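Troubleshooting entry. Yesterday's outputs looked truncated, so today I'm pasting the complete records for two proteins to confirm everything comes through intact. If either block looks cut off, that's the bug. Protein one:
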Amino acid sequence: MSPRKRAQVSRGIQYGILVLLAIVIALAADWKTLAEDFADLDIAAAMFPEVITTALKNTVLYTASGFAFGLGLGLVLALMRLSPVGPYRWMATAFIEFFRGLPALVVFIALSVGIAIAFPGRAIPGGTLGVATVALGLVGGAYMAETIRAGIQAVPKGQMEAARSLGMSPTRAMISIVIPQAFRIILPPLTNELILLTKDSSLVYVLGYTSSTIELTSFGRAALNQEKSMTPLVVISVCYLMITIPLSIVVRRMESRAERAR
């Protein structure tokens, strides 16, 4: 038997095992109980429209503001890491290692409790949104800084040399030539970070929430405690997928377009 034929037989056996496993699971599952516990349409309907107009909206808002803050911070940190000035590199490295090593939950608690203790009577402007923006931005910025730094270093050095030969200053060449090319390279990992921040936005619950500041996970937990059904978790899971799947599709299309442009 030829290697190609053996490979086809091997794949056929694997597909057969998967189909058999799916049939066994389908026959063994208690579909009536699953439908009652995970797909109660009455409970799902009762969650609307608040799950969209409030919880989903707040999740997107917390994520977008945290990502914007983190992206700006990450760019500054990346440039500091690449700076020939030693103190800039040391400060950026210390910041990145510190916030990459801390769980996001600790950062949320530190900002919500620590600020009030260290500075009595003062708080981060913007209430829940302000604290969430800073907390997500600090954690996300530490990771994005390393991603941006790697992207800048991946741009061929000849690009900077060509810009300098045209009379551009190092700063202008970096802003106009190098950084735009770096961002095309690092678009996928940046999108992954955006997806991670979407999930980390669920930590806003440690700040406390009201009916106007609640996000998806807290909304689902409250509904779960009230209804004693897993249906709320299914609903908020679908809402999270409504955010993350389009992001992944957009990135794949942008990657394909960039590949064709090359």
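Protein two, checking that the full record survives here as well:
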Amino acid sequence: MHTLAQLRSGELKGATRLTLRENLTSFPEEIFDLADTLEILDLSNNRLSSLPNDINRLKKLKIAFFSNNRFTSLPSFKGCEHLYMVGFKSNQIETFDEEVLPESISWLILTDNRLVNLPRSIGNLCKLQKCALAGNQLESLPDEMASCRNLELLRLSANNLHEIPSWLWNLPKLSWLAFSGNPCSPKAQFELQEIAYESLEVKEKLGSGASGDIYKAYSNADEQSVALKLFKGAITSDGYAHDEMNATMSTGEHPNLIKVLSKVAGDERLGLVLEYIPDVYRNLGLPPDFETCTRDTFTEETSFSIETVYAVAKAIASAAAHLHARGLMHGDLYAHNILINDDDHCYLGDFGAASFYEPCEKAFEKIEVRAFGCLIEDMLSLCPAKEGAIYTMLEELREKCMNEAVEERPLFSEMGL
């Protein structure tokens, strides 16, 4: 975190990154003094509503964040030829004009705004990989987006879409898709018993995510330790909390899915009681970063035996087949959403991006199959032994799952693991 005083004094000369949180109502002109070096600009959590017309003077700018401000229209960044990541989450943006973004953009965040439509020129963003549009008022997507053939992750939840355009199913690299909370998303829910919040002895917090907090608790009704997830109720990059809750309740039982025991009654927040997973389980991977964009990251020392890769692939393919048989797309099938122990048993969790669809529409499953292929590819890249029958089989399966001809990919139930 930096200060305006530091910026104005010249103390930040030569900086490559600048973060200011000072209730700014106007863009500080002194930022242009960093034009020769500045690569990452974060002016989130201020009160800005406009940017200078000559923002392209920041000729080295790569990443720009303006979340939680007061923009009503998306500013123009034309001429910022190195800019690849733009974030305007939680503004009041209603207008997204034609040709305001450079073709270098690969990561666009417009979550929680007021957009009703998108410009046709979004189809010119040929490098676009990640696009977050949840929590707007979109009624349709422009057909020109079919030209975004590098698009891998798309968040459309909590909008007003009456259909998912068929061209979406043919995007060769689309792998992570979320569209719950739209008129076109079927509403499916399985009844679940309720448990009184007062019957739970809530203990330490186990973790927090975009949609809520998870606590360890003791259930007097079940006479066992459980995990309690309390939802925040806000719109996240994946959609509404109540849609995540609904999807989680609908997963059914499977040895590689965390069992849902009950929903919570008597608390102001939405809540679920889940099977408690002991701390011998750890995350298989870490979320993507600025450089990987859509692909998971791993600690430097991470390596996987071919046996572990096979065990994970078999378990996750089985869990995914189970979900898709119920017309439920996970939407976020990633290593960082998988828990694993030393015996290679794993759980697929986090249904924040899950969406219901009609099971007959197999195209949705084949989109997720590519995400599974990415998972195998990431794990195989960290497997020292790149030979043998199992390695060859998994590499061939990865290739089939990542086939850019979407219709030729196998379904999860056809993988034969």
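Both blocks look complete. Sanity check on protein two: The two ends are 49 Å apart (CA to CA).
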